[in-house]
Amino acid sequence: MSATFPFTTDRSLDNEPEAQELLARRGPVVPATMGPIEIWLALSYAACKQVLTDPRFSREEATRPGGPVTLPSAANPLVLTSMEGRRHARTRKLVASAFSPRMVALLEPRVQEIVDSLLDESPVDLVSGLCVPLPTMVICELLGAPYSDAPDIRRWTGRLMTGRLTQEELREVEHEVQGYLADLVEEKRLRPDGKLITALVLAHDEGGHLTSSELLANLQMLLAAGHDTTVNQLGNSLLTLLRHPAEMQRLIDDPTLMGTAVDELLRFSRLMAATLPRVTTEAVELDGVRLPAGAAVLPVLSSANRDPSVFPDPDRLDVGRDDAAPLAMGFGPHYCLGAQLAKLELRIALTSVLQRFPGLRLAVDESSLTYRMECNVRALVSLPVTW
Ligand code: HEM
Predict the structure, then answer these.
(1) Which structural domains are found in the chain, ordered by start?
(2) CA 364 to ligand 1 center in whole angstroms
C-alpha cells in the first residue's frame, strides 16, 4: 500500500509510530503521496542527513510553482530557506553576521530575568504562563521592539507557520507583518540601538547591503521560524519530562546534564514530523535507493531521530544521551540559524522550572491535554501543573 503524508499520528504521542514502522518494514526511502504530489519519504538518519547536505537536493527547485510546498511562507524566493549555493551562502552570511553568537550570548541575562519574572507569577498553566510569553518577549528583545507588540507578533507567526494558508491569506498576513517590520526598520535607521534590526541594516559585504525587500522578507522569516518552534518545543519538553519522572529527577539532581537533555528532548519529543522538502536536480542514490531527476523528497525528522542504527534503544528517553546530533534543527547549510538562541531559552527555562518547582507534576489527567490541530508543529493548548 502506498504511504501518505502528513501522517495521522495521534498528537499526544512523543513519537511517530507510522514513520518508524515505515522505516522498519519498508526501508530508508519510501515513495508516498502528499495530496496530489508524489514524494519520496527520507526516513533514515543517513537519508535525511544526505538530503539536507547534498547540493543535488534543491530547495530552490522545490519552491517553484507546482513544487512540493509544505509551508507557503518558507517558499518566498527572497528568504534563506528557498535559496541555495552561492546566493544562499551570501545572504546567510549577512544575516548571520547580524544574528551573531555574541548577540545571542548578550541576551542570556535578559532571558534569565524574563524567565524569573514569569515564574514569580507561579503559573498554573505553563503554556500560557511561560512557553508562549518567553519566546515572544525574547524576540521583542532581539529585534528591539516594545513588549506591547507581542500579541500581534504571536498572531502573525501563528498564521505564518500554518501549512494550510491559501496564497491570498499568505499575502494578507505578509502585508501586515511587512508593514510593521518596515516601520520598525525605519525607526532603527533613525535611532540605531545595537540590536538585530540595526545590525541587519548595517550588515554588508563587497556586494553591498541586503536590499530592502530581502531585509523585510528575512526578518519576517526570523520571526516566524523562531517563534512557534520555540514555544512548542518548550511545552513538549516539559510534558516529556513530566511523563518521565526518573529522568526529571536525574536533571534536578545533576543540572550539568541540561546541555545533553535539551538535545535529547529535541530528538525525543517530535516537534515536527518533517522539515522542508527538496527536489533532485539529477538522478541520485539515496541510502541505497535510486531516485530520478526531478523527484520530490521529504526529510522525515521524526523517524530519523528514532533511527535505531544511530540511537540505540531510540524509544528510551535518556537525558545524558550523546550518541549523535539529533536532526530536529536540521543539518548542513540550512542548519537552524536560531539554534543557539532556542537552546539558550530551553536551557534557562527548564533549569529554572525544575529548580523552583522540584515537585512539579500534572494537575489534570494526561488524557485531557489537547493540541492545536491547525498547527504544522505539535502544539499543546495548555499544560496545567501543580507542585
Ligand atoms: C526549538 C526551536 C527551533 C527548531 C526545532 C527549529 C528547527 C529548524 C529546522 C529543522 C531548520 C532547517 C530547515 C531545513 O533545512 O529544511 C531551521 C532553519 C532555520 N531556523 Fe530554526 N528552529 C528553531 C528555532 C529557531 C529560532 C529561535 C530562530 C530565529 C530567531 C530560527 C531561525 C531559523 C532560520 C532563519 C532558518 C533557516 C536557515 C537557512 O535556511 O539557512 N529557528 N530551523
Answers:
(1) 3-386 (1.10.630.10)
(2) 32
Ligand 1 close to Cβ of residue 217 (< 6 A):
no
Q: What is the DSSP string of 269-291?
A: T-S-S----EEESS-EEETTEEE
- Computed from CA positions of residues 371, 271, 32, 10, in that sequence, does the dihedral angle turn out positive or negative? negative
Check if 334 has its Cβ closer than 6 Å to any atom of ligand 1. Answer: yes
Please give the distance, rounded to the nearest whole angstrom, from the Cα atom of residue 37 to the centre of ligand 1. Answer: 25
Q: How far is the CA of 385 from the centre of ligand 1 (A)?
A: 29
Which numbered atom of ligand 1 lies nearest the CA of 272?
5
Per-residue pLDDT of the chain (387 residues; tens, 9 = 90+): 689 999 998 999 999 999 999 999 999 999 999 999 999 999 999 999 999 999 999 999 999 988 898 888 888 889 999 999 999 999 999 999 988 999 999 999 999 999 999 999 999 999 999 999 999 999 999 999 999 998 899 888 888 877 777 888 888 999 999 999 999 999 999 999 989 999 999 888 888 888 999 999 999 999 888 888 999 999 999 999 999 999 999 999 999 999 999 999 999 999 999 999 999 999 999 999 999 999 999 999 999 999 999 999 999 999 999 989 999 999 999 999 999 999 999 999 999 999 999 999 999 999 999 998 877 889 999 999 999
Strand 204-205, strand 289-291: pairing: unpaired
